[in-house]
Specification:
nine-stranded antiparallel sheet, about 65% strand, alpha+beta
Length: about 240
């Protein structure tokens, strides 16, 4: 937790420095009370969550999703931001099957499995206007992650091709504390109304999970969800 708050301290120190740099540009910028954004999302799991290792690996694959954000101005160039993302990240069934095949020395097949992480965070956003059409911004946010998971089937075959073992594995988790850092660039395409929006975010959470199956006692584990996410969409200005 200390490391997380250190990141936020560095982040807001950087915002202060950038504010001084962009002061002249912000003088000439128009002020908007609220903005609303909707984007398509490409999400990339990183770290242990994406690892293809039976010892703590999450086997999560890149996927697609949606992102929504809303900003309400609280001061010159600053806004409160609410940011939500939902994505579909399949389990790398082929990689998991290959790892179990090596571990068991028996052919293993894995079918199904998908993470559906939902991040919802709030925080502080700082906007920097470069000219009448182009502006960028950064934010730091805190909130929650809730993940649902589509179960997968694991089948282990004997050397003669008969089934040795078959099971359905389910993955349960509740809410977890999450944090997000974002950077975005916006280009106005209809004056005072709409802008093209590109955003990069890093989102993470430590998740307490329960693995259950038909033949094995439930297993409790802690898993770290980490994502780098790319958003492309539109922002609507509300004066």
């Amino acid at each position: 937790m200390k490391i997380n708050f250190m990141f936020f301290s560095v982040f807001f120190s950087l915002v202060g420095s950038l504010s001084a740099y962009a002061q002249d540009q912000n003088e000439a910028a128009k002020t908007y009370k609220n903005t609303t954004g909707l984007s398509a999302l490409y999400t990339m799991p990183i770290g242990s969550f994406a690892s293809k290792n039976l010892d703590g690996g999450g086997f999560a694959m890149p996927g697609w999703g949606l992102a929504f954000d809303s900003k309400s101005q609280i001061g010159k160039g600053f806004a409160l931001v609410s940011y939500s993302t939902y994505s579909w990240n399949k389990l790398d069934a082929n990689a998991m099957a290959a790892e179990f095949t090596k571990e068991l020395n028996l052919t293993t097949q894995v079918d199904g499995g998908m993470h559906n992480p939902f991040f919802s965070t709030v925080g502080l956003f700082k906007r920097f206007d470069l000219n009448d059409q182009l502006f960028f911004g950064v934010s730091g946010q805190l909130g929650l992650l809730y993940n649902t998971f589509d179960s997968f089937t694991m089948t282990v075959f004997n050397n003669d091709g008969s089934i040795n073992y078959e099971d359905v594995v389910a993955y349960k988790s509740g809410f977890a504390f999450a944090y997000t850092f974002t950077g975005e660039v916006n280009y106005t395409i209809v004056k005072d109304l709409i802008a093209l929006h590109f955003e990069v975010d890093y989102s993470a959470a430590n998740v307490h999970t329960h693995l259950t199956s038909n033949h094995v006692q439930p297993i409790k584990a802690d898993e770290r969800f980490q994502f780098v996410q790319l958003n492309l969409g539109i922002v609507i200005f509300n004066k």
